[in-house]
């Protein structure tokens, strides 16, 4: 049975390996400390945003505001957190709490998460524009240092991805609370009957999503050194794609944090790979979609084979 | 000690529950003491589920009182419920599902004790179960899931199970496994535990219950020790007169030409009711699914379909939960009545009204949502959906699961009538008594047909004989 559990992670891992091999074949110079760092640099915030999305998908909802939320966090980080750290930190904490409250409200009023989060994305976007009407700001020094640190063996992007994967794996898969949270996605009624306050669990899942969204925004500013209100809008779809690419399912609480991180890395790599192919940027989005469909088709074929066996 | 032993675990006094004007439970007094095994019977809609939910703390009573001997909540008093509709988290492993209802499992390394506890519980209730605690629940069969759920109900979970409510626990188990469960229930009660056992199979009730409580329209109409009832007396108390046995003498019914033949040897003639039997999970459902898929196209829906399917797993394959009863019935016939691709509303309504009457769907208004119906009536809707089409062949995959006796009789009669008009039924059932009503029976064993029985040969003994391998091959 552990074979099945492993199955879910094999496909994302193989997809990443194949893409990586193709990239190295196209561009052998990428096969270095510096090259890897360059390839995967922007994967860190995407991986964090993907984990945030995964927390929501884990409880059978979907979050269309991730991109706007990460952009807002980036704007706060590049302005308030830099100029007045205490105020900035308080704002970020307030954002996390807001997320948790949003989860509780969605559950209590039985609202469709897709609509609520879509609405909230405009709120986040509006605040972000209010804080930073034109691109600018600057990254706090410590954050910049953290994101550009050069660990000895592997580049920062790779180390960070591994750390994110391990931490969230323990949080979501190994821990008792994570198990109950996945249970909410699998069968909320059964969790409720066992005496758990589902509303608090949902708030917790949303709060965790908020936390990882904040981390994503901060990591992004650490890399780009400045922010803009639309800096991360594409993260919404990237994060959903990352979760699914990593072996997660839209419903039923079937998620894999390791897979989600791998999915985020694959998506980042896919765009670099397409640049190496000298594909015109006009075609890149379409090609990225094609890669996504390819991987998902492979997964479907795998699953059908398994069902027959 | 003796005083403590005889104190009831839970006592209800005049407990009532109203949902708006509907009196689901209308003043019920009941006490359950250690060692009791209470058989709870009643028709669908008699208030069994409501009573269960009051006892397990899922609902608060509108009036009356529920007291536990520990003075606290149902959970604290060791009251556990195993529900009819499966309530595990399918995405988690067996051991993780135990964790959901076992809050004392905490800290790092909780998996090992969780695994040990669920394995122990499974071993106790179902020896030789062969279920891996690390298996994800959605890789298990329905019977295995039910077994896991029962095992979780009986597992100590930090405290001790003192009162376990089993709601139709055997509906998806085959006879051997069900017997293991009944044996465990008897052991459990002998050891000072208490069980509330709900089942439509009266044989099981008589088998395990020390006391039988009959519910009707939200009230207890009879409560006696089990040996104070006869089977007929129990059925009478439930208030449903079993329909007279149909003329079983009509042996000389003639059938038309053969219209179904599958590679594995399944065949059926016009006007015939063909039963599929054998132990659960021996390929009957798969054979029917293959047959159905081979006669239909995924691309093109015909105006007059050759075969229609009645699903047994209602919630998964059957009902459209967001739709009304009307639309759930008419989905199969939209093509027939459609003109220029538009639905003929009047014809749709007429059909639904007709079938509501013919099959007896208990609702005031067919535009009510399907989920407002009880399980048995939802199943009737599925029958209506299939029968309303013009298809000559109707495939039924264990459609009577968790359906009450009255509904069953209604549906049997309907099947007989439709067969007499020349329609063919292929009917897989886990209940031998149903299969015995068929004209011809195929018994499956290990995904193959092991016997074909006709006429007087269709007896429980012959079916069992063919279901089990009698001679040792090697």
Automatic annotation (TrEMBL), chain A:
Cellular component GO terms held in the UniProt record: plasma membrane
Q: Name one GO molecular function term.
A: transmembrane transporter activity
Q: Keyword Membrane: yes or no?
A: yes
Q: Which Pfam families match?
A: BPD_transp_2
Note the InterPro entries from the entry: ABC_transp_permease (IPR001851)
Q: Which residues form the signal peptide?
A: none
Q: Which domain of life is it from?
A: Bacteria
- Membrane-traversing stretches: 7-26, 38-57, 64-81, 87-106, 113-133, 153-173, 203-225, 231-248, 260-279, 285-302
**How is this protein positioned relative to the membrane?**
Multi-pass membrane protein
Alphabetically sorted, this entry's keywords are:
Cell membrane, Membrane, Transmembrane, Transmembrane helix
Task: Name where it mostly resides.
Answer: membrane
Entry's CDD domains?
Answer: TM_PBP1_transp_AraH_like
Which compartments does it reside in?
Cell membrane
Name-wise, this protein is Ribose ABC transport system, permease protein RbsC
Native species? Salipiger mucosus DSM 16094
From TrEMBL, chain B:
- UniProt keyword Transcription, yes or no: no
Q: Which Pfam families match?
A: ABC_tran (PF00005)
The record ties this protein, via PROSITE patterns, to:
ABC_TRANSPORTER_1 (PS00211), ABC_TRANSPORTER_2 (PS50893)
ABC transporter domain residues: 10-242, 246-471
Q: What terms describe the molecular function in GO for this protein?
A: ATP binding; ATP hydrolysis activity
Q: Which residues form a coiled coil?
A: none
In terms of InterPro entries, this protein maps to:
AAA+_ATPase (IPR003593), ABC_carbohydrate_import_ATPase (IPR050107), ABC_transporter-like_ATP-bd (IPR003439), ABC_transporter-like_CS (IPR017871), P-loop_NTPase (IPR027417)
The name of this protein is Ribose ABC transport system, ATP-binding protein RbsA
